[in-house]
Structures are given as structure tokens and as C-alpha cells.
Amino acid sequence: METNLRERIGFVEGDITKMDVDAIVNAANTSLLGGGGVDGAIHRAAGPELLAETRKIGGCPTGEARVTKGYRLPAKWVIHTVGPIWSGGNRNEDELLANCYRNSFEAAIEIGAVTVAFPSISTGAYRFPMERAINIALRETKSFLQANQSIKKVTFVCFGREVYNKYQEVFKEVFH
Ligand code: AR6
């Protein structure tokens, strides 16, 4: 059971827009109209049709998730979720970040995604402390995969070697 669970989680260093999976997750903002970081990269790679679709959605509250097609991306779907802006830790940031993972997984199930890739939500422009965010990401993923068999592989796409190493470290703690 635990071995199977570990095999369903992977880590790669690179750019999430290149991932050939059913769904990639975007670290968006509440407008869903694009921005910098991973959001900007996803919009650039998907093409203008993505913005046309997110305009119609009309926004997304922090912690929730919305689905669009992937257009020119290798991924069939994009799950847009809005992470919390870090402001010291007393504004429900941990719970809101956990909600991003839970709601993204729920969205993945609804569209029938079997393979899903995540960036490190909130750890760039939104300044959530990296190790703390990775802990939340991996704990939520563990409990989701334990309770649900439909998703076969969750890949964390790490932007840079340092981030990759940090994921490996926290993975050992969470899946000891
Ligand atoms: N692939 C994978 N990871 C990436 C990529 C990429 N192509 N580019 C950056 N990262 P951020 P946030 C990493 O700032 O903190 C946007 O403007 C990056 O190194 O993209 O949730 C939105 O519109 C970092 O580890 O997202 C929002 O306004 C992680 O992705 C705001 O930023 C998240 O960094 C959201 O901020």
C-alpha cells in the first residue's frame, strides 16, 4: 500500500508547460486573467484561447479551483487554483493552501484526469515559505491518494535544482 502510494508521486525539475499529462495546475490569481511566473508561462504556451476561456469564467476565490482546456499545451486540461498571499501565517494561509490542493484534486477527478502535474503554489510572487508549502502539498497529496485510486500519478514540477532538492527532503519526512 505504502509502496504503491510512493510510486504514484514523482518529482521533476523543469517547466510545467512542457508536461505531457492529462492536467497541469496553474498558480493563478483571483482574476484568472494571467500574470507573471508560472501563470504567465502557461498563458504564453497555451495561446490566446486560454485567456478567452478564463475571461468567461469571471474569476476564482482563493483556495478554489477552475478548469479550462489546455489548448496549445501538451496537457489536455489546466486546473487554475489561487494560492494565498503569505502575510505572516496568521491569516489562514496554511488552510487556504491546503484547499488549493484538495480542490485541484477534486477538479482532476471531475475531468477524469489520471496524471496531474503541480507547480509549487504560492511560493513565488505570493512568498509562502517554501518548506512549509511543500509540507502542505505533500501531506494533502498523500491523504488524497490514500483515499482515492483514480489518479495514478502526481508529478511535482520543481523550478530549479534547489526546489527539487527541497521536495525530496520533505518527501522523506512525509513518506518515512
Ligand atoms: N514551471 C514550473 N514552475 C514555475 C514556472 C514554470 N514555468 N515558472 C515559475 N515557477 P509564482 P505564486 C515556479 O510566482 O507564488 C502570478 O503573477 C516559481 O519558481 O508563479 O502562486 C499569478 O498571476 C515558484 O516556485 O506563483 C499570481 O498573481 C512557483 O512556480 C501570482 O503570480 C510559484 O510561483 C501567484 O503567485
- The oligomerization state is single chain
Number of helices: 6
Q: Categorize the overall geometry.
A: globular
Structural class: alpha/beta
Looking at CATH, the homologous superfamily is: Leucine Aminopeptidase, subunit E, domain 1
Order of strands in the sheet with the most strands? 1-6-5-2-4-3
Strand content: 15-25%
Annotation, overall tally of beta strands: 6
The residue fraction in helices comes out at 40-55%
Q: Write down the CATH topology.
A: Leucine Aminopeptidase, subunit E, domain 1
- What is the mean predicted local confidence, pLDDT? 97
Give the biggest sheet: 6 strands, mixed
Kindly provide the name of the CATH class: Alpha Beta
Describe this structure in words.
The chain is α/β, with parallel strands linked by helices. It has a single domain (2-174), classed as Leucine Aminopeptidase, subunit E, domain 1. The chain has helices at 2-7, 37-46, 48-57, 93-110, 130-147, 161-174; strands at residues 9-13, 23-28, 65-69, 77-82, 115-118, 153-158. The chain has a six-stranded mixed beta sheet with strand order 1-6-5-2-4-3. A hairpin with a 7-residue loop joins strand 3 (65-69) and strand 4. Helix 5 (130-147) crosses helix 6. The protein is globular. The relative contact order is 0.21. Bound molecules: ligand AR6.
